[in-house]
Amino acid sequence: MKRREFLSHLRANQCKLAREGAKHSIFRNASSGVISTVPRHQDISNILARKICRDLGIPHPKQS
Questions:
Q1: What are the beta bridge partners of residue 20?
Q2: Contacts within 8 Å (CB) and 24+ apart, 42-51
Q3: Does any domain span residue 62?
Q4: For residue 55, which of 5, 15, 7 has the smallest C-alpha distance?
Q5: In this predicted model, what pLDDT tens digit does every residue of 10-64 receive, in sequence order?
Q6: H or E stretch including 49?
Q7: Torsion angles phi and psi, residue 60, rounded to 5
Q8: CB 36 within 8 A of CB 53
Q9: What CA–CA distance (Å, rounded) separates 31 from 15?
Q10: Which residues of 2-31 are buried (b: 16+ CB within 10 A; e: fewer)?
Q11: How far apart are CA 2 and CA 49, in angstroms?
Q12: Dist. CA 53–CA 22, nearest whole Å
């Protein structure tokens, strides 16, 4: 999954960018306050995307 698509999915599910790290972006779920890191790679594997969504408590992205 492309990083841009994944970030759009996070934003659509009320996750906000909390801050930028050296090699990761840190996102926070606005409703629960839970945080998770998203690496700055062009492609994010489906397994990693599912893990990040599980950490943030949002639904998994649809796979195309």
A1: 25
A2: 42/2, 42/3, 43/1, 43/2, 43/3, 44/1, 44/2, 44/3, 44/6, 45/1, 46/1, 49/1, 49/6
A3: no
A4: 15
A5: 999 999 999 999 999 999 999 999 999 999 999 999 999 999 999 999 999 987 5
A6: helix 46-56
A7: -70, 150
A8: no
A9: 8
A10: ebeebbebbeebebeeeeeeeeebebbbee
A11: 10
A12: 21
pTM of the full structure: 0.91
Three-state secondary-structure class, residue 64:
coil
Residue ranges making up the domain that contains 23: 3-56
Domain count, the chain: 1
Question: Which CATH number covers residue 40?
Answer: 3.30.920
How far is the C-alpha of 17 from the C-alpha of 25, rounded, in Å? 7
Half-sphere CA count of 28, side-chain side, radius 13 A: 8
Identify whether the C-beta of residue 41 lies closer than 8 Å to the C-beta of residue 3. Answer: yes
